[in-house]
């Protein structure tokens, strides 16, 4: 009788599956940042482990590494640089948006438009700068001038990035 | 943080749209044509009151008029 009980217990123990490892802050490798970089029409990075991301926030240029304190940053139109695990550096010019660092080394960047630098044409940038300067200094409505100033801010940042 | 565009009455939404438009126009020509299509918006709306549909208006025009009216009121 006793041996049957022991056998039954042994069978039960063997059949019981190992409990799944509980997911906590440590499920992302502690020295990697999980990056999601998304535009409305395209996902550039989807929960990919990277080493570091440099962003141009309104509060200043920042470099985000793993274990960064959670924060929400409004982005300036500017360059975002992603340092990947395999050692590659990718740069994207984003038109503006937000970067959110969540607990557990998760970084989400949302932007409206973003392209790698080689997709831009320096000549188109220059033409737009001169047009925007004309409108900003001209006699149009306040709104047109304000919009031209926004354009100038973006274009100057883009021109500096393209050099 | 006071933004110049906010003081001029431009909403954050419009600011994003203007910045995106500029970035699209700065692309090399092959990518630019595809991207410019994303910037087109031709939204119309009509207010309903008492079961009757009002006049059909273009959202872009109404937004522009509202922003010009509110310029300088915020910040």
Keywords:
heterodimer; A: 163 residues; alpha+beta; nine-stranded mixed sheet; 3 helices; B: 75 residues; two-stranded antiparallel ribbon; flat
Main sheet record of chain B: 2 strands, antiparallel
Q: Give the overall shape of chain B.
A: flat
Mean pLDDT of chain A: 87
Reading side by side through the largest sheet of chain B, how are the strands ordered? Answer: 1-2
> What series of H and E elements makes up the topology of chain B?
HHHEEH
Low-confidence stretches of chain A: none
Describe the structure.
With 163 residues, chain A is an alpha+beta fold. Chain A has three helices and nine strands. In chain A, a hairpin with a 2-residue loop joins β1 and β2 (42-57). The model of chain A has no long low-confidence stretch (mean pLDDT 87). Chain B has 75 residues and is α+β, with helices and mostly antiparallel strands. Helix content of chain B is 51%, strand content 17%. Chain B has four helices and two strands. Chain B has a two-stranded antiparallel ribbon with strand order 1-2.
Secondary structure: elements and pairs:
The complex is a heterodimer of chains A (163) and B (75).
Chain A: H1 2-15, E1 33-39, E2 42-57, E3 60-64, E4 71-75, E5 78-84, E6 89-94, E7 97-102, E8 106-111, E9 114-116, H2 122-137, H3 142-162
Parallel strand pairs in A: 1-8
Antiparallel strand pairs in A: 1-2, 2-3, 2-5, 4-7, 5-6, 6-9, 7-8
Helix pairs in contact in A: 2-3
Chain B: H1 4-7, H2 12-25, H3 29-36, E1 44-49, E2 52-58, H4 59-70
Antiparallel strand pairs in B: 1-2
Family (chain B): Belongs to the eukaryotic ATPase epsilon family.
Organism (chain B): Friedmanniomyces endolithicus
GO molecular function, one term (chain B): proton-transporting ATP synthase activity, rotational mechanism
């Amino acid at each position: 009788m006793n041996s049957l009980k022991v056998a039954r217990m042994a069978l039960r123990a063997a059949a019981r599956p190992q409990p799944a490892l509980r997911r906590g802050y440590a499920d992302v490798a502690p020295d990697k940042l999980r990056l999601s970089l998304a535009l409305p029409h395209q996902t550039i990075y989807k929960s990919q482990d990277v080493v570091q991301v440099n962003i141009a926030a309104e509060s200043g240029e920042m470099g985000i590494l793993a274990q960064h304190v959670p924060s929400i940053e409004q982005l300036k139109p500017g360059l975002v640089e992603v340092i990947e695990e395999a050692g590659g550096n990718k740069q994207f010019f984003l038109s503006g948006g937000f970067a959110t660092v969540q607990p557990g080394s998760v970084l989400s960047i949302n932007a409206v438009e973003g392209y790698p630098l080689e997709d831009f044409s320096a000549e188109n940038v220059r033409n737009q700068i001169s047009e925007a300067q004309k409108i900003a200094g001209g006699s149009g409505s306040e709104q047109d001038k304000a919009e031209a100033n926004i354009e100038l801010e973006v274009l100057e940042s883009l021109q500096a990035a393209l050099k | 943080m006071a933004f110049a565009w906010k003081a001029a009455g431009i909403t954050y939404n419009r600011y994003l749209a203007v910045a995106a438009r500029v970035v699209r126009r700065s692309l090399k020509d092959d990518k630019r044509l595809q991207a410019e299509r994303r910037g087109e918006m031709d939204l119309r709306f009509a207010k309903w009151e008492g079961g009757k549909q009002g006049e059909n208006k273009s959202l872009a025009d109404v937004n522009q008029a509202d922003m010009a009216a509110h310029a300088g009121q915020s910040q």
